[in-house]
Amino acid sequence: MFLLDTDHCIYIMNGKPAGVAECAKRVGEAYLALSPFTIAELMYGACKSQHKERNLASISMLCKSLVTLPFEASVVRIFGEVKAALTAVGQLHVANAADARLKRDFDIAIAATAIAYGRTLVTHNTAHYAEIDGLTLDDWHD
Questions:
Q1: What is the pLDDT of residue 99?
Q2: 3 phi and psi angles, rounded to 5 deg
Q3: How much is the pTM?
């Protein structure tokens, strides 16, 4: 059971690198899921792109084919625990960069979703998540 990070959703929607789409097909849609925060990041990217309508349509198709895991109480609690743990060891220090902090919160929320639902997070951005305890990572990128 896997939770797709934003980068892997983009790879699947674009069909490249081909290896990511092949892995997703081999695993099967029934074993893949999305976080609401992944969808939010995809929507933001689509809305600021030159091909907004086409990208929104691709996101809609992806969302129709995969389950979106709810951001419920267990995820919220894990989010708080993970963010507190990262703060305690200085992993969230970003000087004057509100965008970076917000992006980090989305990463933590995606990770919390994976942990709460016992899913492996599939991402090429393994460095963003490496210090999060209890999170299993996989990277299907070539």
A1: 45
A2: -115, 125
A3: 0.89
